[in-house]
User: Fold DUF4180 domain-containing protein from Chryseobacterium daecheongense.
Amino acid sequence: MEIKEHIINHIKIAEIISDERVIESAQDGLDLLGNLYYQGFDKVILHEKNITSDFFDLKTKLAGEILQKFSNYRIPLAIVGDFSQYKSKSFQDFISESNTTQHINFATSLPEALERLSK
Assistant:
């Protein structure tokens, strides 16, 4: 796993880059968050491919567990990926609601994620 640093408008954003899954469980999310928090990052970008598919099935409640940790630490998150593959209306509604509040963002590209987090 590599942490690529982006600094925009004096905001320190960590982009997680890996060829493997980084988050398989809520504990993985907490460990990553703690690591980034103590390195002084203000915001985080994760790629969909680095998160277990269970995250994207709201019935597992994994998304809620992980995202609650980001909320508790007050670290905004952007997840980059192609979310059209998830046909669940509840998940699509979740994406829309998350993007409205802007603490958790779903973006289709890195530039879109950086733009959302640079505010």
Observations:
- The chain has a mean pLDDT of 94.
- The radius of gyration is 13 Å.
- The domain at 2-118 is CATH 3.30.750 (Transcription Regulator spoIIAA).
